[in-house]
Write a structure and sequence with these properties.
Layout (H helix, E strand, L loop, with lengths): L2 H27 L32 E4 L1 H7 L4 H6 L4 E3 L14 E3 L7 E5 L2 E2 L19 E8 L3 H4 L6 E7 L5 E11 L6 E12 L4 E12 L2 E2 L4 H4 L2 E6 L2 E6 L9 E3 L19 E4 L2 E4 L13 E3 L2 E13 L4 E18 L3 E3 H4 L5 E2 L7 H11 L6 E2 L2 E5 L6 E19 L4 E23 H6 L3 E2 L2 E5 L19 H7 E26 L2 E19 L2 H4 L3 E2 L8 E22 L2 E15 L3 E15 L2 E12 L3 H5 L3 E3 L16 H9 L20 E4 L7 E12 L7 E18 L4 H10 L23 E25 L5 E17 L7 E2 L3 E2 L11 E10 L4 E10 L3 E2 H9 L14 E11 L4 E8 L22 E9 L1
Parallel strand pairs: 4-7, 36-39, 42-45
Antiparallel strand pairs: 1-6, 2-3, 4-5, 6-7, 8-9, 8-48, 9-10, 10-18, 11-17, 12-13, 14-15, 14-23, 15-16, 18-19, 19-24, 20-23, 21-22, 24-25, 25-28, 25-30, 26-27, 28-29, 29-31, 31-32, 32-33, 33-34, 34-37, 35-36, 37-38, 38-39, 39-40, 40-41, 40-43, 43-44, 44-46, 46-47, 47-48
Length: 948
Amino acid sequence: MGSKRVAVMRAGLRGGSALFATMMMMGTAMAQTAEPEAQEAEAIVVTGSRIPRPDVDSNSPVNVIGSEEIRQTGTAETEQLLNALPQAVAGSGAQSNAGNGSATVNLRNLGAARTLVLQNGRRIVGASQDGVVDINMIPPSLIERVEVVTGGASAVYGSDAMAGVVNFVTKTNFQGLEVSGQYGISERGDAERYNIDFTVGGNFGDGRGNIVFNGSYYDRSMVKGAARDHASLYLVDAVQNGKGVLVPGGNGVTPQGTIFTPALVGKLDQFGNTIGTAGIFFAPEGWRAYKTSDGFNDRPYTNLQMPMKRWSGAITGHYDVTDNVTAFWEGNYVRSEINSTLGAVPMSSSGFLPNFQFDLRNPYLSSSLREFLRTNLDGDGDNLVSLNINRRLLDFGSRTDDQTREFSRFVVGLKGALTDKLNWEAFYNQGHVRITEVQGGGVLIDNFANAFLTNPSNPYACKVADPRCVTINPFGLMSMTKPMIDYIYTNLTNITVVDQKQAGASITGTLFKLPAGNVGISVGAEYRKESSTFTPDQLYIQGKALSRSAGIQATGGSFDVKEVYGELVVPILADLPFVHLLAFEGGIRYSDYSTAGGVTSWKAGGEFSPVKSLKIRGLYQRAVRAPNVIELYSGATNTAPQATDFCNATGANRTAAERSFCINSLGVPASVIDVFQQENVQIRAITGGNPNLKEETSDTWSLGAVFRPEFVPNLQLTVDYYNIKIDGAIAAFGGGLQSVITACRANLSMSNIFCQPLNHRSSDGQLYDVPLLNANIASMKTAGVDFRLDYRHDIGSLGRLSYYLAGSYLINSIVQSSPIVAAVDCAGYIGGGTCGNANPKWRFTQRLTWDVSDAFQVSLRHRFLGSAKDGRIAAAKASGGAMPLLAVPETGQISYFDLSASYDIDKSLSIYGMIDNLGDHNPPFQLYERDTYDAIGRRFTIGFRKKF
């Protein structure tokens, strides 16, 4: 291990090593009695296999978040339970302002769509058309434990289990009434959270049945970026004197507004400044050339904590119909209201009104600018000139997105004993999600254009025969009046409906007994149908409005799949010298999709225990993921990714060959080629579905060990190596717009398929509506080592100590967006266009808990994230390009400490308190994203639990 790795581990472990050492010394100083072993362990099912086992050690690496950890975490947000796992890269959650408002889990940073989420071993309907589950639909108060399997598991559970499986096991067999509540607030007096829930259950039918009902209400308040300095800064990279520096920046579409046309480049404004490619800016002192410092800082307007209200109810139960047949059922209903905000809508005439005409008779236009534009642009003297106007419509306020989500799910089934060694089960599972989304702060595109054309007889009135239309004043900050706003403002409503139906039957248990032990088997069949529709506002469909999106088309479709599967565990040798157990495990699943056709997934591996205290395990698994509804059938949708056009005269290091290609093949007019510059860092692209997509495939192999030394009772150590490779990954054509541009640049020919989309340009050469439909074009690889240590020890009259350390070392995380683009290794990187969320090489969580008595407990948790470098460095390494000069090249390592304590006042009443982010650490300066790092700061929580 290199010196840098050692330094990282030393720094990260420092916070908890002293506590663990103290615990070990106290343990060796006092008498210790090992717990007696059970005479015969009851067989249980652990996620990763459907075959009951006499132990909890699956051959697939499994992490379990038990009821004690859930209680100590004290969160009312399910994603917070999972984000502390080293195997999980933070998905969308409370601090996310993008996405659809749901909370997701992303194992191994392979994408949330490649992580399968289950409840009690069965599927959950997705919260959107990509099938990704909103895990906040499962309140923590309902959860008994969470089992997380990392690596491919399609042979056991079917499609989507490429990165792994998260199985939420909910409470059953509850008797009595329990009520709990909590309140949380940040040190700064905001970020409030309230939660109240109750669970009631009991037996019926002379003890043959049990039914449990759980209800909860959760309320999380809004925090905007303006509430934290680190979230309000807008700094951009620049190079000064050969060094990377940070300078004030902002979005080029400003609330004051700008106008631009190539014909004005090089002209002088009224103050003698040279007008550049960003055009003319409407400053308080008057119109002038745009400066970089004029950019708009939209960060204070976005959510730092997304507000949410959630009402949930759940029912579970079972009833012994006969001595050998049990009926069971589950039901869930969750309604949540979520609001997110973005900066005001950016309106650009070049992107949405390619033939836009600017009327020089606008009465709000200064006389000096009117004459300047007439002299330089109005050659025919008709007072109409062609130019582009950009304006962020802050006059409207922020763009809002108010979502109402309704989630329902029910499961019914029967199970029983086929023989004394084989059990059967049959079930039906149905889920439904409806999302109503009202987007505020939108602009009516045609009305925006109409408001610029004046009535020659009355310049304050519009040329169009619409009495509501008044001439717009777009010149300067907050310059629009209410009648102007009312004419161009709109709200938009989108509706998404997702349905899932699943039926299955299985037989599991012992097939027969060999000298080495029981041969375990599980066979079954399943049928599943997924369907969804997305109905955007008609104004979106007609291309007449812009808000969070533009030009969205309706999406609808369905697919079904018929599956059969089987698993087998065969003990080969047992209870021999140096062979405590040698066993084989295998599994296979055949799936017949109505879209992708027939696919097969399988697994093979086993375990070897030379002695009772040591188990070596390994598996090789082939997994598949069939394309989901949105990947197959989504309508054409406008997006605006950041990209750099190599036709730019400056900033792209354009060559002579590229200049010629831009003119002769891509449609940039020769008259502007030497001053050509893209008008915005974001370029409109069109993404959409492809019904000809095939399945993704992945190969996973893992090798690990479980060690329980007899000479240190209650100590367990697990170490597992994993290696996952995904081929044919579904992505936008070419892996995204910037990748397409890069691939075209490598071979300047229209026979190069990556150049063909780049001739979608406006008359002045601007890229727009670049088609990037889905394709099986990407590949992903990741490898690493997971480790976990658990230890507990009684310390006599001082109580009991428990400790665990769960960590992961990431060896590589390679993404290749298309075959002709260099693969980028994102292990140890963050952002930069390719690497996305923080992916540090080292991360771990450790917790030390002291049960002072049966009534009082104190616990300290330490979450460590290693340093991550700017992803632009990874991209430069991959392409062989020059290293970027950056003022902040990496995040630095960070540690969060969380303290909790609980006290049982009596057997029926408990109180607890927590301090999260005890050190009040801000996120890393400049280089961070809010899903991984704590953006709120120190938070306090108090709560109670009352049993009746």
